[in-house]
Every structure is written in C-alpha cells, then in structure tokens.
Design a protein that fits this description.
Elements (H helix, E strand, L loop, with lengths): L2 H18 L5 E6 L4 E8 L2 E9 L5 E5 L2 H4 L10 E6 L1 H18 L6 E12 L2 E6 L1 H4 L7 H10 L3 E5 L2 E3 L4 E13 L2 E11 L3 H8 L6 E8 L4 H9 L4 H22 L1 H11 L5 H14 L3 H22 L10 H14 L14 H13 L1
Antiparallel strand pairs: 1-2, 2-3, 3-12, 4-5, 5-8, 6-7, 6-8, 6-10, 9-10, 10-11, 11-12
Helix pairs in contact: 3-5, 3-7, 8-9, 9-10, 10-12, 11-12, 12-13
Length: 368
C-alpha cells in the first residue's frame, strides 16, 4: 500500500467515525391530527414514545388556591391555583385508554393509579376532594378500573382536580397512572393529565383560554413490536403511516445527497455494508462515477458484493481491508445490478480487467 493510499484510508475512516458518532440516538416529531402529536426518541437500550393530546374543548375552572399560606407547612408546595377539570375527560379520554390496554394485552391487565384527586359534590361552588392516598392509608391499592367504576356509579363526582405540583418543570398533574411490562418488550405505559404553566400563552393564543389540560401517553419499550403496534392502533395512531412517510422521505433525501457528493456515497456504503473495506468502497464509487450509475444501482452493487465478502469472512475470517475485491468482481456486480433494474448500459472495463474474469465472477454472483 502506498503512503498516499494509507493516508487517504486513515482520513476516510476518521471522517466516517465522526459521522457514526452522531448516530447514537434517533428523535423525531409527528403530528397525527389537530389535537394529537407525538415524539419518538430512541437511544441505546430502548425507546420512548410520547403521545400528547390537547383537551382544550373540555371545561376547566381555575381559582386561587390556599398555597400562599399552606405552602409554609408543606414539604412539596401546592400550585397557587386550584384546577377543576370536567369529569367527562375521564369518561371520554381515559376510559378508552383503559379499554385499549385490556383489548391489546388482556382483560386481566390492570393499570395502577399512582395519583388522582377527584371532586365530589353538587357543582364547582360546592364540592370536596378525595384522592388515592385515602385508599393507600387503609392498605388498599387503587386501580384505573376501580376509579372508572366508582365514577360510573356516582353522579356526585363532578370533576378532576390538581393533585401534584411539579414546580421545577412547571407541571400541574391531575392524574397519573401506569402499567408495568404489559407484554414482552414493553417496559411500561404511563398516562398523565397535565396542565403546563409555560405553555399557557400558547393556549391563550390558539384557543382564547387561560389554561387547558393535555393527556400524555408515555411508552417505554425495547422496540416497536406487534403488541405495541396493536396498542397504538387501538388508540388511533397509525404508526405504519408515520414510519412509511418518514422512511421514504429519508430515502429520497439520502439518494440526492449521495448522488451529488461521492464522499457521502462512500460514507453511506461504509455505514450500511460493514464487510466492505476502504478499497472496496472506493472502487465501487469509482465505477459508479465513471459509468454515471444512479444510487439504486450502486446500492444493488454493494449488496451483491457484501454477500461475497461475508461468505469469504465465514471461510477465512479475513478483515474487510485485508482482501479487497478485484476490479473484475465490481464490474460483474455492476453489470448484474443494471440488468436487475432493466437498465441497458455497457459498463466500461479498464484495460487491466479481462472480460473472461468478469463473466466468471458474474456466474459466481448469480449462484450466491
């Protein structure tokens, strides 16, 4: 290997290494409808899927609380406002989530109720609150199913109130529930009713309301599996549409960038086909540029040659750079790739490459 080739190899690998370091996580946003959106965040060890639904159409009463005085005696402060949200939020938004959990993961799967405060009385000027701690104090663990049955059996339940004030994040939490490990590969699914202080200006601008409630569904999983897809479908999220739209858009952008810049093409080939070494990628790119081959054909070439290198690795254990592909092999793969896509194109052959070798490698590639 010449000194120049060695330097180019080190520079190229350093550049690819830097790019690879940026691939540790994936995060994107999707809007499902005018009230529903989600954020997908995947990192090493699993993923988070956070689904938010704005509930601005439900009535929410905001009054001054006793926080200016009671906070002197509390370890965790109360908000300076008391919230009373329409009980229909539970019936029309929370109950369908409970039903989706049971239909997807089984009727015996119960959602634990971590925190909730409900108002019992005749109206917003005449009520008293009860919360989950009233049951925990008697060694009874409240559940979502139990809460729904209680509300259905009692007409005097008029609303949901503020339960927890997360002053660091500016969240007033009205309800928090969780199911752990509903199925294999899904660690947990959480449900939260939240009023966020920082976003109130947005509600005023958009809905002419001082405040509104948001329903969050927070999913922690190892990957997107069938059970999770079924649950998402049950709550009205068409994940396949989200995935296909995003995937096709990335592919289109990727194709454009790789066709415009050979360095991008080399980087992508190296990232996707680990068995191809520096010289393999360099020579594939050279053939592609020389013959003006489009991105899809280049990928097909790389797929064919990747199989060759993988097969050789299984036999010899050789590293990608120790036994570079011959030029005749790359030409043979290019001819087959063009034929695969129905492109009638004569691939230019260098003088040092024998057509007999190309035909021999073509036959070998066909048998793979």
């Amino acid at each position: 290997m010449s000194r120049r080739s060695s330097n180019e190899s080190r520079l190229w690998k350093k550049t690819i290494s830097k790019r690879t370091g940026k691939k540790g996580s994936t995060k994107f946003h999707a809007s499902i409808d005018k009230n529903t959106s989600l954020t997908y965040y995947k990192r090493e060890g699993g993923l988070y899927l956070i689904i938010k639904k704005d509930l601005s159409e439900y009535d929410l009463t905001v009054n001054a609380s006793e926080a200016p005085v009671i906070n002197q005696y509390l370890k965790n402060p109360d908000p300076f406002e008391s919230l009373l949200a329409d009980i229909k939020i539970i019936e029309k938004e929370i109950e369908p989530l409970n039903f989706a959990v049971q239909t997807t993961f089984g009727d015996n799967r119960e959602i634990s109720l971590l925190s909730v405060r409900i108002a019992v009385g005749s109206g917003e000027g005449d009520y008293v609150t009860i919360d989950e701690s009233d049951l925990y104090s008697m060694d009874v663990e409240p559940t979502m199913g139990g809460l729904l049955d209680f509300i259905a059996a009692n007409d005097s339940v008029i609303g949901v109130c503020d339960r927890i004030f997360d002053h660091e994040r500016g969240n007033i939490i009205l309800l928090e529930a969780k199911i752990r490990e509903p199925s294999l590969g899904i660690s947990s699914i959480e449900f939260k009713l939240i009023n966020n202080l920082q976003q109130r200006g947005l509600f005023m601008q958009r809905n002419m309301k001082y405040a509104a409630i948001q329903l969050y569904t927070i999913i922690k999983a190892e990957s997107i599996n069938d059970d999770l897809l079924n649950f998402l479908k049950a709550i009205g999220i068409d994940w396949e549409m989200v995935f296909i739209r995003r995937d096709l858009s990335i592919d289109d952008w990727l194709e454009i960038e790789c066709e415009k810049n050979s360095m991008n093409l080399k980087g992508y080939l190296s990232s996707k086909f680990e068995s191809l070494g520096f010289f393999d990628v360099n020579n594939i790119t050279r053939v592609a540029i020389l013959n003006q081959l489009n991105f899809k054909i280049v990928i097909r070439i790389a797929e064919l040659l990747d199989r060759v290198k993988n097969q050789r690795y299984e036999l010899t254990g050789a590293s990608p750079d120790s036994e570079p592909l011959q030029k005749a092999e790359i030409i043979a793969a290019a001819r087959l790739a063009c034929a695969y896509y129905g492109l009638k194109k004569e691939i230019r052959i260098e003088k040092s490459v024998k057509i007999e070798d190309v035909l021999q490698f073509e036959a070998e590639l066909i048998r793979l």
